[in-house]
Amino acid sequence: MDNKLKKELQILATQIRLGIIEGTYNAKAGHPGGSLSAADILAYLYGKEMKFDAKNPKMGNRDRFVLSKGHAAPALYSALAYSGFFPVEDLKTLRHIGSYLQGHPNMNTVPGVDMSTGSLGQGISAACGMAKGAKYIGNNDIRVYTMLGDGEIEEGQVWEAMMFASQYNLDNLCVIIDSNGLQIDGSCDEVMSAEPIDEKAKAFGFDYAVIDGNDLDEIEAAFEKFHQSTKPFAIIMKTVKGKGVSYMENEVGWHGKAPNEQEYKTAMAELNAKLAELKEA
Description:
Blueprint: H1 3-27, H2 33-36, H3 39-49, E1 64-67, H4 73-82, H5 123-136, E2 144-149, H6 156-167, E3 173-179, E4 182-183, E5 186-187, H7 188-192, H8 197-203, E6 207-212, H9 216-228, E7 233-238, H10 261-280
Parallel strand pairs: 1-2, 2-3, 3-7, 6-7
Antiparallel strand pairs: 4-5
Helix pairs in contact: 1-3, 1-4, 1-10, 3-4, 3-9, 5-6
């Protein structure tokens, strides 16, 4: 990856993480762990990969993104804010009464949100419909991306959707699985293992890549494979839950709780130090 682009994306990923902490702290609720793990790929999606216009969110030939793991809304909102869809300052209103930024994405209120999500397993089905619709109208320039959690893929509907994607050869569909190994009740291996995810994806007719989802070079290589594929594509990304905030990393307790004041200050100090380091490099 070009060094200039890499630096820009690293800065964006760090900003997204700052927005996640800002939002969940001010909400006194939310899901920081699985939001932080997804920040790098969201930075790549909104900083390089996807075609969109923040000033015209409903642009007809835009690429679509569906956050199937809708509880990671703080990450999506932060990515959208730092991409210009709405003011970054609004992230502080997360989950507040009267705010348009509620706990799960709402396509009717939030600019840039392509599908309302929250009930796990359903987002990928909507993404399949979008991809099929683009093919139906003959627009081969529209790509559809959806992100799922590794706990989420315990839902049977996910595999029905993948079967649909293969049946209708949705080579414009990219399914991103954030495999951080932890879900609300503990380790995915202990609760209900979905492994081997790569072999399952292959069995369901997908091309796929297994990557470090917190490494921008590996993320770029995976999307290049997607562009070359003639099948629906899965990116299975191994990530660190809570990535970027030292005390949250690989701690299942941070799946669904907000930092208190001291934890907020610690997290913001770490992330602001990282941002300053990147900008000075």
